[in-house]
Predict the structure.
Amino acid sequence: MVARVLRASSIFAIWLFAYLLSYFYRSANAVIASDLRADVGLSNEQLGFMTSLFYLAFAVTQLPLGAALDRWGPRLVTPSLLLVGAAGSLLFALGESYLVLSVARALLGVGFAGVLMGAMKAFSSWFPSARFATVSGVLVGIGSSGALLAGTPLAWLAGELGWRAVFLWGAAIVALAAVVIVVGGRNAPPNIAWRARGAAGAGIDTIVRDHRFWRIAFLNLATVGATFAVQGLWGGPYLTDLYAFSDLQVGNALVALGIGVVAGNLACGWLADGFGRGSVVVMSATVFVAMQVLLAIALPAAPVAVIYLVFGLSSAYFVVLAAEVRAIFPLNLTGRALTGVNFFGMAGAMVVQWLMGVVIGAGDGVAGYRVAFMATAALSTVAVLAYLPMVRTRRARAPAPTEA
């Protein structure tokens, strides 16, 4: 028993290392946005679309990823993708044009597409269902501190070494993470049946026919879309354009947002396992909508860093949605079900981030940001309302987890 606990802890640490890198890369452009605009001459629309390609590639990769994880396991699938990410980081460091940076950003999205889903696939075998949200919440909570590295530390490093050097060294670190997973990772404990059998598409009909999957996926789309649009890109320009923040002030505000995400993820899994998943999701999502409305209002003396902190704190319930999926579907379908939900989240990140760039570029200063944030608030509100029937159903009859 002790040996299994120690082994599970080492598995957790291995995946945590990779997830830290994933969060750093998805958030980095928010800090170096002014450098990219100055050095490469990108417009707001180009910056938004180029940055969003990370999420587009990430989302598209989810489609074959679930079946691959269920069949071959995260120990092989995730490192193979990480090597693509290392190549993307290297290309980004060398890129001198909009086209090259766009290709590099897409390669980064492919490279990190298997990290969180690979970790959750492994955790579904290494940890009991009743503790899945807690363990996953700790992973995402600590791992999302990678966004803190993409705040003030990245702003300082970019100023001292240049943003290209940061991405160059990052390529080597990503390749190292791939090696660590192959050498130290395991798909499941001995005698645990995690592998899918039969055709690659088997079980997909079970997933797509379940209305609960679509309610979870839609809420994830709205939440991840707004969160990564702010944390991954527009949170920086918003502060620069509306409040005339310096690069260091922008970095500090984004660190506050990242701290909120870390704290939210650390808390929400434990709260969900103890007090109910539906209540945690609805309460968090309601506050999340309120923060978007405050960003849209953009009062001159608004405590923006505090709003960013609460915005991050209230957005961090993906692990609770993942626990919903873990409880609904059997172990041999968790890879496909989780990546299905994640696909919609990353598709939302791509679309929201890009469209915000279009709206902001077409608007007049404050007006562009105001319309953009009111639109994300409206989308989040509709998604929460669509999710509510799941909470009512659970109160009437709590669904029991289905094991393989």
Summary: Residues 292 and 377 are 6 Å apart (CA to CA). The chain has one domain: 2-188+200-396.
